[in-house]
Amino acid sequence: MSEHTVLKLIKQADQAITNEDFDRLMSFYAEDAVLVVQPGQIARGKAQIRRAFNAIARHFQHRLTVHQGRAHVFEGAGTALVIMETQLFIGDAKTPVTRRATYVFREDPADGWLCTIDNSYGTDLLDAA
Amino acid sequence: MSEHTVLKLIKQADQAITNEDFDRLMSFYAEDAVLVVQPGQIARGKAQIRRAFNAIARHFQHRLTVHQGRAHVFEGAGTALVIMETQLFIGDAKTPVTRRATYVFREDPADGWLCTIDNSYGTDLLDAA
What we know:
With 129 residues, chain A is α+β, with helices and mostly antiparallel strands.
């Protein structure tokens, strides 16, 4: 089975995070998308999401690299749910911090697949509830 | 904060499962929604989803009750991601089987919020990858 389009987009977005190319990164998000910055903190809309990624880059002293691990994609009714291991490599660390992420995409007639909800914490948010 | 509409809909859907009212249950799904029946098995579209719920009801000898535990809802760009403890009470069991589920909804201009992806296994699917 060929790789789902949204997995290719996530790889490109991960590269944009590594390069701190936030103009490019924002092109993967819907205008009123939501990013779970950390448990209890949400960024809503491209302006807030961009500011959050700037803050994340500073927090990791501009040494954050993001890779994909195992993944499943479910597509239904113009939406896609991605269940994925997201690996954060910080600085010179040889082993990543691995999150079990959940991403939602919507297929837009004009713009193709756009990320609408970016929750890298997945169901672990229930621990913080 | 008032409860998000999709949480109310999930409660109504859970009641429909308990009552085995599959006509009503199907009204919560988009026409081409996807249900993760079990790891590696997908039902696509209302006809397949209905057959899957019939099989599930038989499997649990018509003694399945579904309740919500803790939940988070994230809404962005006309979609919603629900992260939820889904509690399955089977027969006379006092303690439920708890899953950490992920549900995707899409807001339809005519029909309101409809479930597009029903994955009660959440990120645990990565264990089966």
